[in-house]
């Protein structure tokens, strides 16, 4: 080998190492930005960071965006509060589903639990029009976009959530 070939090889290796280093730095920056986005969204929505990451993983597999789910969960909280506060229409909707919004002491139950119980109950309704109307009443106008989640129910969501964890799509944010 000539010295020019050796120098060219060393320069190519140095360039490759630099690219790997740049790639690693970019990867760390992207991971940090992702973690920051998840923490911010958790603070804004009150949804646990683990749950948000699981839902983000599922959005590609179910065609239900994370934004749709978080907005629907937020609307559910508002609906729960209104039902507790005396809204007959909303109280009847939850009653139709057999879902209690309050615990035995009259305090609101965990909103995620109520959301998934409601999703399961809507999924079991035989009248599709009534199911859609109830979903829209409780979850807002984006409820129709939840139909793929309603179809798989909370058990299907739990399977995707476990898959997300198994695939490493849920970062430890603690």
The helix-and-strand class reads mainly alpha
Order of helices and strands: HHHHHHH
The best one-word shape is elongated
Q: How many separate helices? A: 7
Estimated radius of gyration = 23 Å
The unreliable regions are: none
Biggest sheet layout: none
**What's the total number of strands?**
0
Q: Percentage of helical residues?
A: over 70%
Span between N and C termini? 54 Å
Strand content: under 5%
Walk me through what this model shows:
With 174 residues, the chain is mainly α. 75% of the residues lie in helices and 0% in strands. It has helices at residues 3-45, 49-62, 66-84, 88-97, 111-123, 128-139, 147-166. It is elongated.
Features:
single chain; 174 residues; mainly alpha; elongated
Topology:
Elements: H1 3-45, H2 49-62, H3 66-84, H4 88-97, H5 111-123, H6 128-139, H7 147-166
Helix pairs in contact: 2-7, 3-4, 3-5, 5-6, 5-7
């Amino acid at each position: 080998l000539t010295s020019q070939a050796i120098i060219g090889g060393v320069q190519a290796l140095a360039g490759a190492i630099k690219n790997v280093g740049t790639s690693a730095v970019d990867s760390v920056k992207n991971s940090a930005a992702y973690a920051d986005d998840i923490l911010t969204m958790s603070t804004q929505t009150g949804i646990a960071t683990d749950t948000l990451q699981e839902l983000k993983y599922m959005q590609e597999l179910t065609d239900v965006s994370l934004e749709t789910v978080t907005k629907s969960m937020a609307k559910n909280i508002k609906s729960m509060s209104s039902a507790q506060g005396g809204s007959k229409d909303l109280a009847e909707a939850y009653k139709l589903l057999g879902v209690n919004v309050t615990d035995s002491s009259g305090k609101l139950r965990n909103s995620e639990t109520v959301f998934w119980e409601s999703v399961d109950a809507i999924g079991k309704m035989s009248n599709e029009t009534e199911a859609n109307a109830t979903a829209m009443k409780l979850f807002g106008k984006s409820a129709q976009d939840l139909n793929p989640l309603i179809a798989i129910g909370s058990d299907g969501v739990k399977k995707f959530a476990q898959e997300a964890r198994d695939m490493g799509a849920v970062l430890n944010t603690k």
